[in-house]
Design brief:
Length: 131
């Protein structure tokens, strides 16, 4: 599965990054302005349907991770014609991934990598030759 990770020390102005990302990749769109809020809500709905408590272990785990990350934006980042990555961005950085059926060559994702480098993020990718 193709991925790009950009990490920082926890002080990223992620809303500015999102705004500039939308300028750099104008076909991108917001999926959720608060990923963990929406995820916890969905998990609680599922738990209720299954007759489970809303404070079950999986939900508590998601709530712990939400506290660690804080508010997280969920985006569909269109990096080129026909290639969109699922991305989540918060104060710790960005994770952008393609699905198992997403074929992304290094050249297609290079624009995103360069964009993230301009934010002084520590980059890791599924392409070993990108540093």
């Amino acid at each position: 599965m193709p991925f790009v990770i950009g990490r920082t020390d926890g002080s990223l102005d992620f809303d500015s990054l999102v705004a500039q990302l939308f300028c750099a990749f104008p076909e991108s769109r917001m999926i959720s302005d608060d990923y963990y809020r929406d995820r916890i809500e969905r998990e609680k709905e599922i738990a209720k349907r299954l007759g489970m408590a809303e404070d079950s272990a999986p939900i508590r785990c998601t709530e712990r991770v939400a506290l660690e990350h804080g508010t997280q934006r969920h985006l569909a980042v269109s990096i080129s014609q026909g290639i969109t990555l699922d991305a989540r961005i918060d104060r710790l950085g960005i994770l952008a991934v393609g699905g198992d059926d997403t074929v992304v060559c290094r050249a297609a994702v290079q624009g995103l990598i360069e964009f993230l480098r301009a934010w002084n993020l520590e980059i890791e990718t599924s392409w070993d030759d990108v540093k």
